[in-house]
Amino acid sequence: MADVGEGGRSRRSRRKPLDVFRDAPESRAVWEKLPGPVLEAVARCDADRLEVELSGVAPHVREAKTAPLYSVAYRFASWERLVRRLEPDWPAEDLYMEVEYNNDLDSRDSLSDVMSVLVEEEGGQELSQLLECLDARFRAATVPDPDLSLRPWIRPTKERPEEELGEWWKRKPVRVPWAG
Questions:
Q1: C-alpha dihedral over 18, 19, 22, 28, to 10 degrees?
Q2: What's the pLDDT at 180?
Q3: For labelling alongside 97, which of 8, 38, 54, 172 has CA 20 to 30 A away?
């Protein structure tokens, strides 16, 4: 049975669109200033990502999905939200689980993969500067984890030798975001 509300409209159709930049004001500010060529490069990266996300899904899902869930904008915002969450002034009232931390570190991995394409474009240095700033804040809110104490719960999804992993996989939060 359909999920229908007042006026015969689906409740799903009345949902607010996803705000990719929710709780990520720095990413939003940079995005609003990106020049056309950078946005076009982002669109190409997103088109490639959409194909990855659509591979192996049912045809009716494939036809309905027009944008990737893990767009470049989403990955930047996700990384910013994680960094902000680790900082001391984040209100710890929301639920955040280890699996989300793992996903956010994976998002940071994928940003490394797309940045080489994006910084080649005139104006792409703004994205590079944003990423460098967020990475520095991440380092400030974490400490080295030479024993990889989080590895039983936090593991990269891509198989790589440990020495090839980004530094974010080898650090642990000072303020653990999933502890209540």
A1: 150
A2: 57
A3: 54
- Report how far residue 10's alpha carbon sits from residue 3's, in angstroms, rounded to the nearest whole number: 6
d(CA 151, CA 145): 10
Q: Considering Cα of 102, then 104, then 105, then 109, what sign does the dihedral take?
A: positive
What is the token pair recorded at 6? 């007042």
Which residues on adjacent β-strands are paired with residue 144?
Answer: 171
Mean pLDDT of 6-25: 66
Closest C-alpha among 80, 108, 91 to residue 170: 108
Q: Report the DSSP pairing between strands 171-173 and 142-144.
A: antiparallel
Positive or negative torsion for Cα 30, 76, 131, 39: negative
Summarised one tens digit per residue, pLDDT across range 57-106 is 888 888 888 889 899 999 999 999 999 999 988 876 778 888 899 999 99
Position 65 scores a pLDDT of 85
HSE, side-chain direction, 13 A CA sphere, residue 85 = 23
Residue 28's Cα: distance from chain center in Å? 13
Query: What pLDDT does 40 receive?
Result: 93
Average per-residue pLDDT for the chain: 86
Report the run of H or E that residue 126 belongs to, with start and end: helix 125-140
